[in-house]
Write a structure and sequence with these properties.
Strand content of chain B: 15-25%
Strand content of chain A: 15-25%
Number of helices of chain B: 11
Largest sheet of chain A: 8 strands, mixed
Keywords (chain B): ATP-binding, Cell membrane, Membrane, Nucleotide-binding, Transport
Protein name (chain B): ABC transporter ATP-binding protein
InterPro entries (chain B): AAA+_ATPase, ABC_Ni/Peptide_Import, ABC_transporter-like_ATP-bd, ABC_transporter-like_CS, Oligopep_ABC_C, P-loop_NTPase
Family (chain B): Belongs to the ABC transporter superfamily.
Number of strands of chain B: 12
Radius of gyration of chain A: 21 Å
Largest interface: A-B, 43 and 42 residues
Oligomer: heterodimer
Shape of chain A: globular
Main location (chain B): membrane
Strand order of the largest sheet of chain B: 6-7-8-3-9-10-12-11
C-alpha cells in the first residue's frame, strides 16, 4: 500500500473582484495524481506559483481540495496524525512567547497523548533528543535559538504524534549552507530510523536531488514530468525540466540560456500545453492540444507532444 | 569626523590594473544594548575597472554591512570605526554628506535585494523612471528597457509596481542603476535571491552581458555559492565580519585554501552521492565576531593554540590571499 496516494487533485481559488466585475479563478493545482510508496521520498519541484505549496497544504488538510482525493495509508481523511507538516519558516511556525517545551507538549495535549505528566515530560525530552538537541533547550524561547536549531524543533514537533508521513515544505530554504547540511542529514537519519515517507516540496534542486527517490516537476498547476529521481535528474526529458535544471547555477557552468519571459498567470493559464508560451521547442499544435502525461520507454511520465523527439542522442542509439 | 586612513594592511590586489575601489582595514561596529558588536573587521581589497568581485558568506558574516558601508548608508546605530575607502582617487570617508550624495546613484549604483521595497507602491513605474533619469525621451526609454529584455512592458509603464513580477522589477532597477546612470561602480546586494531559478538565470546572464558591453565594475554580494561562481572574476569569502580568503573564482573552487572555504564547499549537496550524509560544519557562528583570534577557530578542523589568541595576517598562497595561520600547510 502506498503511504500517500493523490487522485486528480484540484484546488481553485476564487478571487472576488469589485462591484460588477466577474470573479476570477486561480487554478493553483489543476489535476495532479501521484503516489508515494512506503519509506520513499517524493520531491515536487517547481518555481514559485506553480502550486507545489498548495499541494502541501491539501496533504495536511490545511486546504480542502476543490476536486479529487487524498489517501494516507489507504484511508481518506480519517487520521490527522498520520501525516504532518514541516514548514519553511521556523520563526513563524512557533509561538515566540512560549518555550520550546510548550511547542512540543502542545500536539500531545491536542491529541490526548501521554496524559500522565511524567510520561509527557519524558516524551518531550525524547523528541528533542531525536532531533539532536539537548534538554537545555526546553526552557528557551524561539528568539534565543538559531534558525537551524529552530527548524529541528519544528521537525520534533511534527514527529510528536508519531506520523508515518512528513510533508516537508521548503524545509531548508531559510537556512545557511552549513546548517542546511545538518538538517538534510537529520532528515535522512530520521527516515531510516522511523521508517517515514516524505513528500518534499522544494525549489532547491540540489536538495531534491540529494533526498528524493522520485520526483514530480510542476508547472502552472500541473505535473509535466514524473518518475525515478536519478533518471530525471541525469536525463531530463520535458523542455521545462531541462530549463529548470539548466538554470541551477554552479561552479564551472556558464549561466544557462534563459527561458523567454516568466511564468504566466494561473488565472488564465495558456491554452494547450501551459508551457508553450516559453518553450523553445513549441510548434503550432502545442497551443491547441494539452498533452497528457504519457509513459516513456524508461517508465517515467512526460506531458509533451514532442516527447518522442526529445530523447537525448545517447538514448536513441 | 572621518578616521585617519591607516597605511599598510595586506590587501587583495586586483590583477587587472589600477584599482577603482580600494578598501583598507575597514571596520564597522554596531552599538547595541549589549555593548558594541564588531560587524566588519580589518577588511581590505582592491577592485579594478571592469572587474566583478563576489562576496560570499552566511547570514551575519557582514557582507551586506560592508556594502552599506561602501555607500555610507549605515543605520544610525552603526559606524565606520577604522579604515580607508578610496574610490577613483577620492577618500570616501573624508567626503562631506553632500559630496557623498552626489556620488550615490550617479557614480556608485546599488541593486537592492528586494526590488519591490525600493520602489514607491503608489506611483506608476514610468513616472518613477523619470524621477531617476533626467531628460528621458521615448528613444532612450526604449533603449534602456530593451537593454534588459523588457521591451514588452513599454506600453505598460503607467502600471504600478505590484502589477509587475519580481523578475521584471529587478530588471527595471538594473536598467536604471546600470544602464541609465552608467555608474563607475555597481554594488549588488543579493540581487537574485528572491527570484525563481529560470528568472535568476536571465538576470545573471544580463549582468554578465552588461559587463562585457559597457564594462560594469561590480561588487556582488550573495550567500549562494553557485551564483557567485558564475558571475565573479574574483571571490571573497567572509566569516564573522572578516574577509578570510580572496581568490580568482576558478582558484577558489579548485583549490580552496581557508578551512572555512573548504568546509563550505564540502557542504554542497551536489558534491555527495545521493542519500549520503552531507559534510557539515560543527558548532555555530554565534559570538565569533567578538573573538580575539581567528573567528573560525572554534569550528575549525585544523585549529592550533595560536588560532584562539592571534588573528592571522593575510598570507599569499598561489593566487589566493588567506587569513589562516596554517595557510600553505598541507592540511
Amino acid at each position: 500500500m502506498s503511504a500517500v496516494r493523490a487522485e486528480d487533485l484540484r484546488k481553485h481559488y476564487r478571487i472576488r473582484s469589485g462591484r460588477g466585475g466577474e470573479d476570477r479563478v486561480v487554478h493553483a493545482v489543476d489535476g495532479v495524481s501521484f503516489e508515494v510508496p512506503e519509506g520513499r521520498t517524493l520531491a515536487i519541484i517547481g518555481e514559485s506559483g506553480c502550486g507545489k505549496s498548495t499541494i502541501a497544504r491539501m496533504l495536511v488538510r490545511l486546504a480542502e481540495p476543490t476536486e479529487g482525493r487524498i489517501l494516507v495509508h489507504g484511508a481518506e481523511g480519517v487520521d490527522r496524525r498520520a501525516i504532518q507538516l514541516v514548514s519553511q519558516n521556523p520563526w513563524s511556525a512557533l509561538n515566540r512567547r512560549k518555550s520550546i517545551r510548550h511547542a512540543l507538549e502542545q500536539p500531545l495535549a491536542v491529541h490526548g497523548l501521554y496524559p500522565d505528566k511524567a510520561a509527557r515530560a519524558a516524551r518531550v525530552r525524547e523528541l528533542l533528543h531525536l532531533v539532536g538537541l539537548t534538554d537545555e533547550y526546553l526552557g528557551r524561547r524561539p528568539g534565543g535559538v538559531s534558525g537551524g536549531e529552530l527548524q529541528r524543533v519544528t521537525v520534533a514537533r511534527a514527529l510528536a504524534v508519531e506520523p508515518r508521513v512528513l510533508v516537508l515544505d521548503e524545509p531548508t530554504a531559510s537556512l545557511d549552507v552549513s546548517v542546511k547540511a545538518l538538517l538534510v542529514n537529520l532528515l535522512l537519519d530520521l527516515k531510516r530510523r522511523l521508517g517515514l515517507s516524505y513528500v518534499l516540496i522544494t525549489h532547491e534542486i540540489d536538495i531534491a536531488r540529494h533526498l528524493a527517490d522520485e520526483v514530480a516537476v510542476m508547472y502552472l498547476g500541473r505535473f509535466v514530468e514524473t518518475g525515478d529521481a536519478e533518471r530525471i535528474f541525469s536525463a531530463p526529458r520535458h523542455p521545462y525540466t531541462r530549463a529548470l535544471l539548466a538554470a541551477v547555477p554552479g561552479p564551472g557552468r556558464e549561466p544557462a540560456a534563459p527561458l523567454q519571459g516568466e511564468v504566466p498567470s494561473a488565472v488564465a493559464p495558456p491554452s494547450g500545453c501551459r508551457f508553450h508560451t516559453r518553450c523553445p521547442m513549441a510548434v503550432d499544435a502545442c497551443a491547441r492540444t494539452e498533452p497528457a502525461l504519457e509513459p516513456d520507454q524508461d517508465g517515467r511520465l512526460v506531458a509533451c507532444l514532442r516527447a518522442d523527439e526529445l530523447l537525448s542522442p545517447a538514448e536513441t542509439v | 569626523m572621518a578616521p585617519e586612513p591607516k597605511a599598510g594592511g595586506a590587501a587583495a590586489p586586483s590583477p587587472a590594473g589600477p584599482a577603482l575601489l580600494s578598501v583598507r582595514d575597514l571596520a564597522v561596529t554596531f552599538r547595541t544594548r549589549d555593548g558594541e558588536v564588531p560587524a566588519v573587521r580589518e577588511v581590505s581589497f582592491d577592485l579594478a575597472r571592469g572587474e566583478i568581485l563576489g562576496l560570499v558568506g552566511e547570514s551575519g558574516s557582514g557582507k551586506s554591512t560592508l556594502l552599506t558601508a561602501l555607500m555610507r548608508m549605515l543605520p544610525r546605530n552603526a559606524g565606520i570605526t577604522a579604515g580607508h575607502i578610496g574610490f577613483d582617487g577620492t577618500d570616501l570617508l573624508a567626503l562631506r554628506e553632500d559630496g557623498m550624495r552626489r556620488l550615490r546613484g550617479d557614480r556608485i549604483g546599488l541593486i537592492p535585494q528586494r526590488p519591490m521595497t525600493s520602489l514607491s507602491p503608489t506611483t506608476s513605474v514610468g513616472r518613477q523612471l523619470r524621477w531617476h533619469l533626467d531628460g528621458l525621451d521615448e528613444g532612450r526609454l526604449k533603449e534602456l528597457l530593451g537593454g534588459v529584455g523588457l521591451g514588452a512592458v513599454l506600453d505598460r509603464l503607467d502600471s504600478y509596481p505590484f502589477e509587475f513580477s519580481g523578475g521584471q522589477l529587478q530588471r527595471l532597477l538594473i536598467a536604471v542603476a546600470a544602464l541609465g546612470k552608467q555608474p563607475d561602480l555597481l554594488l549588488a546586494d543579493e540581487p537574485t535571491t528572491t527570484l525563481d531559478a529560470t528568472v535568476q538565470a536571465q538576470v545573471l546572464r544580463l549582468l554578465l552581458e552588461l559587463r562585457d558591453r559597457v564594462g560594469l565594475t561590480m561588487v556582488f554580494v550573495t550567500h549562494d555559492l553557485g551564483v557567485i561562481s558564475q558571475v565573479s572574476d574574483r571571490i571573497g569569502v567572509m566569516y564573522a565580519g572578516r574577509l578570510v580568503e580572496v581568490a580568482p573564482a576558478r582558484e577558489l573552487f579548485d583549490a580552496p585554501r581557508h578551512p572555512y572555504t573548504r568546509a563550505l564547499l564540502e557542504a554542497i549537496p551536489g558534491r555527495h552521492r545521493r542519500g549520503e550524509p552531507l559534510r557539515s560544519i560543527p558548532g555555530t557562528v554565534t559570538g565569533a565576531n567578538r573573538l580575539p583570534g581567528c573567528p573560525f577557530a572554534p569550528r575549525c578542523a585544523a585549529v592550533v593554540d595560536r588560532c584562539h589568541e592571534e588573528n592571522p595576517e593575510v598570507r599569499e598562497v598561489g593566487e589566493s590571499l588567506v587569513r589562516c595561520h596554517r595557510a600553505g600547510e598541507d592540511l
